[in-house]
């Protein structure tokens, strides 16, 4: 596959492949199983295409009952399972395993219920993010989380990765907009968490599932909150002579108590690539560009526009345009939404990173990335959710040049270590997957990781769901319960043990 360390394939499972494939065809008939090599090539990686691996078999169920039967079958026979949505994940979270059933949820693509009175939509996990907004926009509603891949990414995948997007600063991530799910556990049990009501009783299991990266269960239904479209929205396009000045402007806007509907930042390389790609009218003589969207009542927007302009001028802005129509506002966003494919036109390959930092550290981290770029001899284009400090540096490299992928990986690792060093975290919305798995120790100590592993063990005691992802070290659940005896003395000897 690659040089990436993954769980050793189970020889017994590989030896039973023909039998497993035939059994899957019984559970999911009518072309619901893909077992030919050429057919499985389409599923060999997710959006992190640097890593590829053919699965044991690809299965595309259509009903919750089929998912339950597949998981129970695999659990009873100790067969690994990797869940997959649309495959847009950028952290290798849906990377197949040689001895695992790849459970693809793309056929779960129906909206089941639209409830305007309760402002909810219930959808199957294969419905696209943008599909939910399209389903309700005629009544003046929308679904707030809007990842750049929203035209393709699935709502089930959004739950798995706790995805965000341009509007997450004001309206929250997926976790803040999901009200309930139906899910299937590894033993085939179907459970429901939450629903249309405001909050669920008991432990916040819904919160645990959101962002669990396919390690705890397979989501088969999602209920999300929809919002009324704001009365008005306008955007500012603000240019700066340096990324550091733009970063400081972001911190000052939030510090002034202004919460924009969205606040995004692009640096020089990203600006030029996006402008060449979509002709959005971006200024090309600036080193950094902020897009600040303000929404709400008209008079409030007018006041906040003046405040943002004042703060931008204090931070040395050299250009500022305010949208005068919805069409112009959307053109401002068109370049940002297309930034990832646009950068693909200026470099044979790029490595998309994802880390989150405190906003006040933006100038320091941006300066640090510039120094790393010079040290590694690789370019970097920055496109990110500036308002909440979620960075998406795109490291430019050419995989055809020996050693460049490894340099890009090392560069990305240093960026994420810097994020943690300044008080941030390893991921904002792309997840840990395999990309950041071996960096978990820079953010968590062994006790932290063991506690997280205990949650995994409660849902999937045999570690059959998406193994090799998130946790840097594979271990059995029994190992977490081991008792440490030091010089013949157990810790807390006065506690009764049974």
Automatic annotation (TrEMBL):
<dbReference type="InterPro" id="IPR016171">
    <property type="entry name" value="Vanillyl_alc_oxidase_C-sub2"/>
</dbReference>
<dbReference type="Pfam" id="PF01565">
    <property type="entry name" value="FAD_binding_4"/>
</dbReference>
<keyword id="KW-0274">FAD</keyword>
<dbReference type="Pfam" id="PF02913">
    <property type="entry name" value="FAD-oxidase_C"/>
</dbReference>
<dbReference type="InterPro" id="IPR004113">
    <property type="entry name" value="FAD-bd_oxidored_4_C"/>
</dbReference>
<dbReference type="InterPro" id="IPR016169">
    <property type="entry name" value="FAD-bd_PCMH_sub2"/>
</dbReference>
<dbReference type="GO" id="GO:0071949">
    <property type="term" value="F:FAD binding"/>
</dbReference>
<dbReference type="InterPro" id="IPR051914">
    <property type="entry name" value="FAD-linked_OxidoTrans_Type4"/>
</dbReference>
<dbReference type="InterPro" id="IPR016166">
    <property type="entry name" value="FAD-bd_PCMH"/>
</dbReference>
<dbReference type="InterPro" id="IPR036318">
    <property type="entry name" value="FAD-bd_PCMH-like_sf"/>
</dbReference>
<keyword id="KW-0285">Flavoprotein</keyword>
<dbReference type="GO" id="GO:0016491">
    <property type="term" value="F:oxidoreductase activity"/>
</dbReference>
<protein>
    <submittedName>
        <fullName>FAD-binding oxidoreductase</fullName>
    </submittedName>
</protein>
<feature type="domain" description="FAD-binding PCMH-type">
    <location>
        <begin position="51"/>
        <end position="229"/>
    </location>
</feature>
<keyword id="KW-0560">Oxidoreductase</keyword>
<dbReference type="InterPro" id="IPR006094">
    <property type="entry name" value="Oxid_FAD_bind_N"/>
</dbReference>
<dbReference type="InterPro" id="IPR016164">
    <property type="entry name" value="FAD-linked_Oxase-like_C"/>
</dbReference>
């Amino acid at each position: 596959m690659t040089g990436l360390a993954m769980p050793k394939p189970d020889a017994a499972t590989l030896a039973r492949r023909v039998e497993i494939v035939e059994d899957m065809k019984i559970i999911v008939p009518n072309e619901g199983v893909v077992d030919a090599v050429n057919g499985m090539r389409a599923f060999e990686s997710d959006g992190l295409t640097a890593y590829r691996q053919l699965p044991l078999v690809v299965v595309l169920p259509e009903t919750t009952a089929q998912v339950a039967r597949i998981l129970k079958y695999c659990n009873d026979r100790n067969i690994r399972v990797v869940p997959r949505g649309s495959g847009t994940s950028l952290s290798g979270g849906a990377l197949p395993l040689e001895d695992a059933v790849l459970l693809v949820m793309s056929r779960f693509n129906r909206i089941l219920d639209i409830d305007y009175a309760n402002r909810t939509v219930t959808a199957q996990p294969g419905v696209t993010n943008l599909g939910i907004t399209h389903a309700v926009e005629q009544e003046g509603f929308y679904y707030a989380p809007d990842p750049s891949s929203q035209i393709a990414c699935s709502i089930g995948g959004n739950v798995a990765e706790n995805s965000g997007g341009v509007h997450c600063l004001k309206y929250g991530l997926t976790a803040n907009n999901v009200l309930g799910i139906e899910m299937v556990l590894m033993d085939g049990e179907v459970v429901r968490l939450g629903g249309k009501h405001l909050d669920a009783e008991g432990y916040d299991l819904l919160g645990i599932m959101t962002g669990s990266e396919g390690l705890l269960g397979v989501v088969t239904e999602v209920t999300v909150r929809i919002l009324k479209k704001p009365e008005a929205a306008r955007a500012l396009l603000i240019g700066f002579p340096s990324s550091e000045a733009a970063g400081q402007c972001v911190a000052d806007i939030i510090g002034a108590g202004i919460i924009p509907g969205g606040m995004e930042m692009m640096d020089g390389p990203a600006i030029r690539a996006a402008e060449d790609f979509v002709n959005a009218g971006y200024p090309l003589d600036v080193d950094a560009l902020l897009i600040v969207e303000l929404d709400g009542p008209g008079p409030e927007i007018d006041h906040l526009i003046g405040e943002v302009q004042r703060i931008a001028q204090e931070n040395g802005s050299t250009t500022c345009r305010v949208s005068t129509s919805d069409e112009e506002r959307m053109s401002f966003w068109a370049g940002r939404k297309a930034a990832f494919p646009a950068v693909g036109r200026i470099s044979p390959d790029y490595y998309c990173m994802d880390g989150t930092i405190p906003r006040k550290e933006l100038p320091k981290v941006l300066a640090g990335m510039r120094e790393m770029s010079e040290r590694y001899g690789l370019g970097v284009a920055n496109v990110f959710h500036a308002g909440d400090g979620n960075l998406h540096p795109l490291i430019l490299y050419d995989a055809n040049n020996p050693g460049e992928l490894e340099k890009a990986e090392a560069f990305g690792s240093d960026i994420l270590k810097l994020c943690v060093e300044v008080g941030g975290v390893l991921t904002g919305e792309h997840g840990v997957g395999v990309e950041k798995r071996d960096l978990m120790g820079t953010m968590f100590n062994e006790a932290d990781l063991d506690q997280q592993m205990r949650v995994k063990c409660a849902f999937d005691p045999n570690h059959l769901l998406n193994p090799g992802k998130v946790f840097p070290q594979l271990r059995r659940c029994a190992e977490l319960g081991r008792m440490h005896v030091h010089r013949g003395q157990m810790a807390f000897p006065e506690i009764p043990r049974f």
